[in-house]
Amino acid sequence: MTLLSDEILVKMLKADDHAAFRExxxxxxxxxxxxxxxxxxxxxxCEELVQNIFLAIWEKRDTLLIENLRGYLxxxxxxxxxxxxxxxxxxxxxxxxxxxxxxxxxxxxxxALHFRDISAIFESIFAQLPAKxxxxxHLSRIEHKSTKEIAxxxxxxxxxxxxxxTQSLKILRRQLSDFLPLWIIVxxxxxxx
Length: 193
What we know:
Layout: H1 6-14, H2 18-39, H3 43-59, H4 69-105, H5 109-128, H6 131-142, H7 147-154, H8 158-175, H9 180-192
Helix pairs in contact: 1-2, 2-3, 2-4, 3-4, 4-5, 4-9, 6-8, 7-8
InterPro entries: RNA_pol_sigma-70-like, RNA_pol_sigma-70_dom, RNA_pol_sigma70_bacteroid, RNA_pol_sigma70_r2, RNA_pol_sigma70_r4_t2, RNA_pol_sigma_r2, RNA_pol_sigma_r3/r4-like, WH-like_DNA-bd_sf
Domain RNA polymerase sigma factor 70 region 4 type: 122-170
Keywords: Sigma factor, Transcription, Transcription regulation
């Protein structure tokens, strides 16, 4: 396999050849990982992004149009890295937003109490949610993944993803109804992210 060209490996991959896929993986995994590492801090995140690329290639092998395998892989990595940086920036902004609100509400004892109560309620609600519902909500509202991305990642239909998001939002709204003014301020970004 090591002597085969990328073009032949791609043709074999389209014919469901596991050995061709393994050779493509072996040939490009490390260079993709190192390229991701130059842009991102976390080795774990780099590994995840590279794994996602290979997973997508295997899952879509029969419909892929790849003329230049190396170019295709590095383009896919570029998009994965850009999406990851966007997610990290949004998470950082959200964290700053929450910290600012917490500091604002800690100026009064009542505000600090409400903020802590809401944080405790959030933790309690997520501990009670079914694992899949909690995971879908986290991917959607914290990691800002699309319904389509979540469905592919968890191998479930998009309608199921929408159902889990709807259920978690209903539960959050119901549980936080007593804190409505603060809920709107603190959670707007989370729920409408």
